[in-house]
Amino acid sequence: MSLANGFLPINMDEVHALGLEQLDFVYVSGDAYVDHPSFGHAIITRLLQSHGYSVGIIAQPDWKNEESIAVLGRPRLGFLVSSGNMDSMVNHYYVSKKHRESDAYTPGGAAYKRPDHATAVYGNLIRKKYKDIPIIIGGIEASLRRMAHYDYWSDSFKRSILLDSQADLISYGMGEKSIIEIADALNSGIAVRDITFVAGTVYKTKDLSGLYDYELLPSYDAMRADKALYAKSFKVQYDNTDAFNGKVLAEPYPNGLYVVQNVPQTPLTMQEMDDVYGLPYQRTYHPSYEAAGGVPAISEIKFSLISNRGCFGGCNFCALTFHQGRTCIVRP
Q1: Which of 53, 132, 175, 278 could bond 171 through an S-S bridge, CB–CB 3.0 to 4.6 Å?
Q2: What are the φ and ψ backbone dihedral angles of 261, each rounded to 5 degrees?
Q3: Nearest-angstrom CA–CA distance, 289 and 68
Q4: Which architecture characterizes domain 12-305 according to CATH?
Q5: pTM of the full predicted structure?
Q6: Cα 44 vs. chain centroid, distance in angstroms?
Q7: 26-46: b or e for each residue (b if 16 or more CB lie within 10 Å)?
Q8: Domain locations along the chain
Q9: Sign (positive or negative) of CA dihedral 260, 262, 263, 266
């Protein structure tokens, strides 16, 4: 269900124009709203729409004002959160840690319309406003920080972003299958704390009794004290990015808590991938950005066609394998 301009709603007037009082999901993004399949928020929202769910988008909310997260009201099923197409820290800083002067994913190229560590900031903002709403985080920032990790920008060892964002689930990697399974589970009345069975997700628990054939990673405290243990843990994670022979991984934290990574979702088939990219995208930025000069990032991808995903290379400077997996898939 889209508006006359073809886009999804961005305010309550537009929700009401669709004949709705409440949306099923609200997607919060660190990017401007660009309805093009090169943008993760466009794929996930259009896919949910194709499965009968109503979705609205809050693009680049003011993280200093919790009311900015409430402009579409409380969703029926939950919030979806992403920092945007780029990790927010890479978006903000050069490798020298100096500030970048512009942001191609923001109207007019303006810088700093999203916070540092945007996924965690947005998650905490939502949790402050809506204490018990399901929060599912995803995208490159959440995916690459799904377990304990070294943070270059602060030169420190951080917990899983699942904990720091106060989210309930991470949909990691390319999340088309996992997000629909999560949505269907929530819609059927399953509590978000009980959604522990979806491939391509990470959840938190104090009970591992239901797991089998899993690998216990070094604990967060142990890795923080010994860098070599972290290197070993990451090697195990890297070796389990395959949906067909990967294992469930469990990472211990203080007070009996575990962060559990399910096996990756299975790759899309040729037809499934073609279907994803055949959804009714407008293939441009939201018309409300015209006054600012549009969104610069559209210039490179407006007429592009995505033909493949995944990489078997495993180059040590690249995160693609860890995010998209080793299996290469293509469109017909």
Answers
A1: 175
A2: -105, 115
A3: 18
A4: 3-Layer(aba) Sandwich (3.40)
A5: 0.96
A6: 9
A7: bbbbbbbbbbbbbbbbbbbbb
A8: 12-305
A9: negative
